[in-house]
Amino acid sequence: MMKRASQRRRGVITLEAILSIPLLVISFFAVAEFGILLVVQQAVTTAAIEGARESAKGATFAEVKTRVNEVLSVHGMTVTDANILMERFDVALTVLPLIPSCTPVSTLALAAGQTRVTLCFALPTGPIQNFLSTFGFTLLGKNFNISGYADLE
Length: 153
Hints:
Elements: H1 2-56, H2 61-73, E1 82-88, E2 91-96, E3 114-122, E4 143-151
Helix pairs in contact: 1-2
């Protein structure tokens, strides 16, 4: 009698494994994908903040672009993956348009003595592995507007 019960239980365990393992694998890839996305977002945020700091020191647009590139290069990205919008409260804005579908948006007015660098970043194929494209979900080609602010020195 005990032998039959354990044989039936073995079949249930196999069925549960067949149903749950694919869900666990998909969950693992989703967590990995969003983890990579957060690292990319943090890198772009840091680049925008560093660009704003350079702008606050009175740097030119080329110098801001160089600093943004330095920060992004640590993560295997370059400014060619982003459009840059540099604004100062007393100077007209400067835009580096590289990606036509990604236009940096400036929504808030700057206070006197402030500068802002906005990166409109289109997700590249490099850092994002696109694990979930098989299941109809992709982050490639999505755009993010990230701004960094600084007070003029």
